[in-house]
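Chapter summary example.
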Amino acid sequence: MKFSIVTISYNQGRYLKQCIESVLSQKNVDIEYIIVDPGSSDNSREIINSYKEIKKIYKKDKGPADGLNNGFKIATGDFFGFINSDDYLLPNSISKLQNEILKSNASFISGKGLEILNGKSNIISPTKLTLDKMLYQSSIIFQPSTFFSKILYNKINGFNKENRTCWDYELFTDFLTVGAEHHLFEEPIAAFRVYPESITGSGRLKKQIKIDMNRVFKKYKNRDYNYFDKSINIYQRILNKLS
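The structure predicted for these 243 residues follows.
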C-alpha cells in the first residue's frame, strides 16, 4: 500500500520544517509527499527546495481546495491524506493506520488527534460521520487524521475548488453521499495547531464558513439551513457527549 500526502504551503515557514520532517520520518510505510505552494513570500520555498524527496508544485491556484486538487492530480498512491503546513504527523502513526486499513478494509478512515492550544495538547476523538450528522453540523471532524482511498476521491471528482473555507467538510460529506462508510481508528495520527493567526484560532472566516456550510446543506436538502435544523444540531451534539 502506498500513501500520497499533500500539503498546501503559504507563508508558514516557521512551522513548515516540522510538518515536512513529520511526514518524511514515518517508518515502515511507503509515502509519496507532495507540497503545493502557490507563491509564498517568506522562506517556505527555500525550506521545500532543501528536500529532494518532495514532489513540488509551484503555480498559482484559486485557493486551498484547488491547490489540493492539483496535488492529488499527480498522486500515485492508493490512499490519500492532506496535512496543513502548520500541523504535523505523530511518529510512526501512518504505519499503524496502514495496519488498521488492511484489517478493516476501510476506504474512509479517521484516527484521533492532538489539538495544540496555548502550548497544551488535548486529545480529540472524532465522531463516526454520517450524512445527517454532517449536514446538521453535529460531527466532530479531525481532518489531519483522516485518510481516504484514491478510488473514493476520484469517485466524487475531488474537492469543490470554489469552497474557500470548509473544503474538507464538503469533501467528506460528498464521500458519504456516494455510499462511503466512515471508519474510526482509536490511535492518534496527527497534531493540529490553534493559534491567533490560524483560520480556526482567528475566527476571521466565521461568516463565510456559515455561508459555505449552508450551501452544502442546500446541495443535498434543496433548502436553506434554518432554526429547526439548529435544534437538531444541538440534540445530536448532546447525544454525541452521552455516547
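To summarize the output: The chain has ten helices and nine strands.
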